[in-house]
Write a structure and sequence with these properties.
The structure holds 2 protein chains of 2 kinds. Chain A is 43% helix and 15% strand. Chain A is of the alpha/beta class. Chain A is globular, with a radius of gyration of 18 Å. Helix content of chain B is 40%, strand content 13%. In chain B, a hairpin with a 2-residue loop joins strand 7 and strand 8. In chain B, helix 4 packs parallel to helix 6. The two termini of chain B are 35 Å apart. The chains are: A alpha/beta, B alpha/beta.
């Protein structure tokens, strides 16, 4: 249980759901972590639970100035440069192409896409200088294929996948690795808000492993990508999705709008 | 009460969440000790449940043993929860095996920090506590330190420069602890275990012995630790043991193989070449300070 000894990590969206599971696995493997989130109360409670191994910082990932402060604080509290960044924070908004409010569209872009970029931009200089670092960007299965009513969300998740590969090429010479993770349907506060148990049950029937994933299913991959075990892996995309992207099973066509055409 | 009983004693085990540390903590608890478990946050929760189920009191002191604050927390937990600390089992460890030419600064520093500094910090804190108790009572304490060395320090395993060096340091730390604190009633011994754990998975692989108990099971190591912790081992201090598979081997101190003296007042390299060179001319160059015979145990 020492795979991340010596790792100093920032985990965005670390207060709950997938980010909290990642934080829990990281400290159990010896990392020191900064839980960065807009959810102050949940983040502080979690950091307290981990004792000296974790700190909480308020962070709105879509605000570049906020990033500068959080990285500076992290260097002080973790006792060295940040050598792991988990860009996990994300939001989900459904909306059809012709009716999604522009505000919603821009919010998704600001948090998911810009947030990921601002994070990489904030930690890259110190990682380059130290010739050591791992950036793990949380995309989605919607970064590998589209889904109805998720134009904005899928757009950002494809963007994260593309930014990951470009950054990996740029930072490879500095021994800084960048990879993307593509979770499928995972039961977290983010996904619960948008559909709840009914959506989960519907989802489970369309997943080869026939169950919705949990944060515990995802976190071990982050441990691997943060550790030196993945030292020859960069620019990669890792699906943890119960098998949903293994198939191009014909579109279920449950709307009925096309019948008779 | 049996002299091997640990009734009324308080023990701390570092790295107690799994592998050797967990087996040692269970053995100490079975012998009657109340135990403080240290491991990384969350990593010893299951071990604590297992020990509680034995009907033994247990407390958690999580943290990285390379940090001073963790050693402080361990002492505080033992003293506040159980009122004393009698047994220290330094076990927590980590490996980053690389050939010397590939080893990074971080891989060297990390292994030295966790093993050697980790052993030092808790030993020092415990020693300060015991000295204080002995001073206040005007007598001695009855305490035992069990450190975890490794045969790696005697054989110089080629891909483990960091680990072998740390384990050599731990052996010296053990001897210094035994000598420095013997007077106040503290014993200190080092074990060199062979055990199949998460840390050694790459070295030992899977059990193919076909025996009912894996010869490299941590359960073969734990009884020795419980014994060395007990009053029955009162005459055992400053020793180094190799232990695995139902065997305990006591190692002897190194001996002088050959002495050379200059014929003049001071050595010249020419004279050294005649004297040492002559000696080594007939000697197998593979025979070194490395104690390879131990590997045939």
């Amino acid at each position: 249980m020492t795979r991340l000894m010596g790792k100093r990590a920032i985990i965005t969206g670390g207060a709950q759901g997938q980010g909290a599971a990642i934080a829990r696995h990281f400290v159990r493997e010896g990392a020191s972590v900064v839980i960065a989130d807009v959810a102050d109360d949940a983040g502080k409670v979690l950091a307290d639970e981990f004792g000296d191994a974790a700190f909480f910082s308020h962070l709105d990932v879509s605000d570049p100035d906020s990033w500068t402060a959080v990285v500076k604080d992290a260097e002080a509290s973790l006792g060295g440069h940040v050598n792991v960044l988990v860009n996990n924070a994300g939001i989900l908004r459904f909306g059809e192409v012709d009716s999604m409010p522009l505000d919603d569209f821009e919010l998704v872009i600001n948090v998911n896409m810009k947030g990921c970029f601002f994070g990489m931009r904030a930690v890259a200089p110190a990682m380059k200088a130290a010739q050591q670092g791992s950036i793990i960007n949380c995309s989605s299965v919607e970064g590998l294929a589209g889904m109805s009513s998720l134009t904005a969300y899928a757009g950002t998740k494809f963007a994260i996948r593309g930014m990951t590969k470009s950054a990996a090429i740029e930072l490879g010479a500095y021994n800084v690795r960048v990879n993307s993770v593509h979770p499928g349907m995972i039961d977290t506060p983010m996904t619960q808000v948008h559909g709840g148990d009914a959506a989960m049950q519907w989802g489970a029937t369309r997943i080869p492993l026939e169950r919705v994933g949990t944060p515990e299913d995802i976190a071990p991959l982050y441990v691997y990508l943060a550790s030196d075990e993945s030292g020859y892996t960069t620019g990669g995309e890792f699906a943890v999705d119960g098998g949903v992207t293994a198939s191009h099973t014909f579109y279920p066509g449950n709307s009925g709008k096309n019948s008779g055409r | 009460m049996s002299p091997t009983s640990l009734d009324g004693r308080v023990a701390v085990v570092t790295g107690a969440g799994a592998g050797l540390g967990r087996a040692e903590a269970v053995a100490l608890a079975r012998a009657g000790a109340r135990v403080v478990l240290n491991d990384l946050p969350g990593a010893a929760d299951e071990a604590a449940d297992e020990i509680k189920a034995l009907g033994t009191e247990v407390a958690l002191a999580p943290g990285d043993v390379g940090e001073r604050s963790t050693a402080d927390l361990i002492m505080q937990t033992a003293l506040e929860s159980f009122g004393s600390l009698d047994i220290v089992v330094n076990n927590a460890g980590v490996t980053r095996d690389k050939m010397l030419f590939n080893m990074s600064d971080e891989e060297f520093d990390l292994v030295l920090r966790i093993h050697l500094r980790g052993h030092f910090l808790l030993s020092r804190n415990a020693a300060a506590h015991w000295r204080q108790v002995a001073k206040e009572s005007g007598g001695t304490v009855d305490a035992s330190v069990i450190n975890t060395a490794s045969e790696a320090f005697l054989t110089g395993s080629p891909g483990q420069a960091n680990y072998a060096a740390a384990k050599a340091g731990i052996t010296a730390l053990t001897l210094s602890t035994a000598r420095g604190l013997g007077r106040i009633g503290v014993r200190a011994n080092a074990i060199c275990p062979r055990a199949r754990t998460a840390m050694t998975a790459a070295v030992f692989g899977a059990d193919e012995s076909g025996k009912s108990i894996d010869p490299y099971s941590a359960d073969h190591v734990a009884p020795l630790v419980a014994y060395l912790a007990s009053p029955a081992a009162e005459r055992i201090t400053g020793q180094v043991f190799v232990v695995y598979g139902g065997m305990v081997a006591l190692l002897a101190a190194p001996v002088v193989e050959q002495r050379f003296d200059t014929e003049g007042d001071i050595w010249s390299t020419e004279e050294l070449d005649r004297t040492l060179g002559g000696f080594f001319a007939d000697r197998d160059p593979d025979v070194s300070f490395a104690a390879d015979s131990i590997l045939s145990l």
